[in-house]
Automatic annotation (TrEMBL), chain A:
InterPro entries associated with the record: Bact_solute-bd_prot1, SBP
SUPFAM superfamilies named among the record's database cross-references: Periplasmic binding protein-like II
Main location: periplasm
Signal peptide per UniProt: 1-21
Source species: Jannaschia pohangensis
Phylogenetic lineage: Bacteria, Pseudomonadati, Pseudomonadota, Alphaproteobacteria, Rhodobacterales
Family label: Belongs to the bacterial solute-binding protein 1 family.
Gene Ontology cellular component annotations, sorted alphabetically: periplasmic space
Subcellular locations according to the entry: Periplasm
Keywords assigned by UniProt, alphabetized: Signal
Pfam families named in the record: SBP_bac_1
Protein name: Carbohydrate ABC transporter substrate-binding protein, CUT1 family
UniProtKB/TrEMBL annotation, chain B:
Taxonomic classification: Bacteria, Pseudomonadati, Pseudomonadota, Alphaproteobacteria, Rhodobacterales
Membrane topology: Multi-pass membrane protein
Keywords: Cell membrane, Membrane, Transmembrane, Transmembrane helix, Transport
Record's protein name: Carbohydrate ABC transporter membrane protein 1, CUT1 family
Family under the similarity heading: Belongs to the binding-protein-dependent transport system permease family.
Originating organism: Jannaschia pohangensis
GO cellular component, one term: plasma membrane
Domain ABC transmembrane type-1, chain residue ranges per copy: 115-328
Predominant place of localization: membrane
Length: 406, 339
């Protein structure tokens, strides 16, 4: 037993040392990273680890841990994986450092598109974009002679036709799990109907025509879903697709690769992607754009920050993208968009373009308030107007406690 | 015992209790009357974010916290009296619901929704835990020696399993196309969606709690059964008492202090129910008071936490436990004094 373990350890050590050759420099500083745990992060942190002395923590709870961990002095992590939603507290509390000098010295391979600037200073390096867009079963749409829907009214019509034909258990899937997911689904639709979340003075503005329309559309869509949609998160929808239970869903682009994973999926090659549907005529696709990328902690010595940045650049290089092309819609040179990326690219380049998820203190409170109050609308306990009024009240009391409203 | 010896024995425990119980409690109490928040300014900020091909830069007025020269966020703390309590209880929505005598509106406010469920949950599971625990204890007590060991082991299993794992295993039996759901669908030839119905989720949560806690009642009561006075039982039999009468008039009175003890522990534990909400993802249908506190404490994407509301909600939960325990505690107190 012991011999076996030793042999295994030996193999790992060997592979680690051969892998280290893939890195352009030998890293001697202990670099710790904290990021989300999806495939793209796995690819990036693995590539970073090739430089040696990198310990990567991939944790879906990163959004709760990051602000406190980066506020510590010295910071518990040198590199953080963030998205435009989770970078807000780090920027607000000043716990990440401007990267202009490091980019000038080591960031030669970065494209201008990747540099996230706040007030002129580079605060983060983006590596990929993510968005929720339409994924659909190409075989079912071909068999039934349906066109790929571009608006939500067409989604409803297609869902009705698929239900009529009875080829899948439920025509639609959606990331409507109570809480963050449900709120995000509402945000997408609400923006699609041209809504704004709050006014310039931080008072809420969701109780509007756009809000009511968004809720009504969502309710109409649920008619074609698994009745258990309030526990259905991204992974649940992904599995519904993989097991051939649904025919359409507005799902994260980062889930695309899983559809063609032969170990899990029964629908390999049968899922296509298209632009996120439009909610109203002349509107932007009803979705938000996201980016994921890295930040460097402020409360660490400068030489560690330098090492961390160089390691991160190795993680974000062309070699990594070529090896993991299908894992994300990379912003890094060398990326070749595949068929699965078509939907995300169509969404991101549509006119008018959907907005980036607004990363503000107000939006954080609004997102929570929406997530907490929407349930009673979908369980039928409250009307759309009452629900929107309740969201505004919940937001207002939270904003007062947070000091955003007097 | 000399006072000094007494103090040496009790001292460490008093210090630890002050440190780990009294001090946090006082902190929470103070927090519930205070609000600490960053000082915000509004400022025009230009933010550039990547599109697929080119960047889009937008200039907008953002509300951002003020940093001091050390780079720390400037925070102010102020006393707010009972306003966090008012927030938790529902504020204006609460007063409107009371004015309209509208129970449905009241039940939509998180706190009252949680209180309704927590109370039902606690009070409904209690008798089931006691009756089931006692039944298993009686069965095991009457089982032949050879199978006693294995039966005790099997009965204790649910109690040993980690709560969240236990909740998840029951969830997987029923949610989506769980095995039991598929059987039931085949049996009644319908299409079931357990997680779509509040009452079904509520039932599963209670079922899980009874399944999980009954072994605890069983262990305590089984121990109690070993001390039942044989002579009293035999004289009852000679007097012609049936099995039921022996249980009713000899065994249960003997076990009463233990039953009160189990009741106390169960009321305390069930009122603080939390893992059921997580295990069964019941947030959309049913939440508990403890979950509400947790929810206030969870930071959102922008890093806001509602510490003051969380403290108020925690205090309210504690007050609830005290009220709930008052009756059984008084009884124990009386018994102790009587004895």
């Amino acid at each position: 037993m012991l011999i076996k373990k030793l042999a295994l350890a030996g193999i790992f050590a060997l592979s680690a040392s051969t892998a280290m050759a893939a890195c352009a420099f030998e890293n001697s500083q202990e670099v710790k990273t904290l990021s989300a745990g999806f495939e793209a992060w796995k690819a990036v942190t693995d590539a970073m680890a090739e430089c040696g002395n990198v310990s990567a923590e991939l944790d879906q709870e990163f959004r709760t841990k990051q602000p406190a961990a980066f506020a510590a002095d010295p910071s518990l992590y040198a590199v953080g994986g963030v998205s435009n939603g989770t970078v807000t507290p780090l920027i607000n509390e000043g716990t990440i450092r401007p990267l202009d000098d490091l980019v000038a010295e080591y960031g030669g391979n970065l494209t201008p598109n990747q540099l996230i600037r706040v007030d002129g200073q580079i605060m983060a390096i983006a590596m990929m974009v993510n968005t929720q867009h339409l994924m659909y079963r190409t075989d079912i749409f071909a068999d039934l002679g349906l066109d790929v829907p571009t608006t939500y009214d067409e989604v409803l019509a297609a869902a009705a036709a698929i239900k009529e034909a009875g080829v899948v258990e439920y025509p639609l899937g959606a990331t409507m799990a109570s809480g963050w997911n449900l709120a995000q689904d509402f945000n997408n639709m609400f923006l699609g109907f041209g809504g704004t979340f709050y006014n310039a003075d931080s008072t809420p503005a969701v109780n509007s025509e756009a809000g009511v329309k968004a809720l009504e559309m969502m309710k109409a869509l649920t008619e074609y879903m698994d009745p258990e949609y309030l526990v259905s998160d991204s992974t649940y929808v992904q599995q519904q697709f993989q097991q051939g239970k649904i025919a359409m869903a507005n799902l994260w682009a980062s889930r695309g690769a899983a559809m063609n994973d032969e170990a899990e999926s029964q629908v390999v090659g049968k899922v296509g992607s298209a632009m996120a549907p439009i909610a109203m005529e002349g509107g932007a696709p009803a979705t938000t754009l996201w980016w994921d990328g890295i930040v460097i902690a402020k409360n660490i010595p400068d030489d560690l920050a330098e090492a961390a940045f160089r390691v991160a650049m190795e993680g974000l290089d062309e070699e990594m993208v070529t090896a993991n092309n299908a894992d994300a819609i990379w912003l890094i040179p060398g990326y070749v968009p595949d068929e699965m990326a078509a939907g995300a690219i169509a969404t991101a380049t549509a006119t008018p373009t959907p907005i980036s998820y607004p990363s503000t203190s107000q939006m954080g409170l609004m997102h929570t308030a929406i997530g907490n109050e929407l349930d009673s609308f979908f369980t039928g306990d409250r009307s759309a107007e009452e629900t929107l009024a309740a969201i505004e009240e919940a937001y207002t009391s939270a904003a007062k406690e947070a000091g955003l409203l007097q | 015992m000399k006072f000094k010896t007494f103090a040496m024995f009790v001292g460490p425990s008093v210090v630890l209790m002050l440190l780990f119980i009294a001090f946090p409690l006082v902190t929470v109490l103070i927090n519930s009357f205070q609000v600490t928040n960053p000082v915000f300014i509004t400022q025009e900020v230009e933010t550039c974010t990547p599109g697929f091909v080119t960047q889009t830069c937008t200039t907008e007025v953002k509300t951002i916290p003020v940093l001091d020269e050390d780079g720390d966020v400037v925070r102010v703390t102020q006393w707010v009296g009972f306003s966090s309590y008012a927030n938790v209880l529902g504020g204006e929505r609460f007063s409107r619901a009371i004015a309209d005598l509208d129970l449905g509106q009241l039940a939509n406010i998180d706190f009252w929704k949680a209180l309704r469920f927590t109370l039902t949950f606690t009070l409904v599971t209690l008798p089931f835990v006691l009756v089931l625990g006692l039944s298993i204890a009686l069965v095991v007590n009457n089982a032949s020696k050879s199978i006693k060991g294995p039966v005790i082991f099997v009965s204790l299993l649910p109690f040993i399993i980690t709560p969240v794992i236990g909740a998840l295993s029951i969830r997987w039996l029923f949610y989506g196309d769980g095995i039991v759901t598929v059987w039931l669908e085949a049996l009644f030839d319908t299409n079931l969606s357990v997680a779509a119905n509040g009452w079904a989720v509520e039932f599963l949560m209670m079922f899980y709690r009874v399944w999980h806690v009954a072994p605890f009642a069983f262990v305590i009561l089984y121990a109690g059964l070993q001390t039942v006075n044989r002579d009293t039982l035999e004289s009852a039999m000679i007097d012609g008492a049936s099995r039921w009468e022996r249980l009713r008039f000899v065994i249960i009175p003997h076990l009463m202090p233990l039953i009160v003890f189990i009741t106390l522990i169960h009321l305390m534990d069930a009122y603080r129910a939390f893992e059921e909400v997580i295990g069964f993802s019941s947030e959309s249908h049913r939440i508990t008071l403890q979950y509400l506190t947790y929810d206030y404490l969870q930071p959102d994407d922008a890093g806001n936490r509602q510490i003051s509301s969380a403290s108020a909600s925690a205090m309210l939960t504690m007050i609830g436990v005290v009220i709930l325990l008052a009756a059984p505690l008084r009884r124990t107190w009386r018994d102790q004094r009587g004895a």
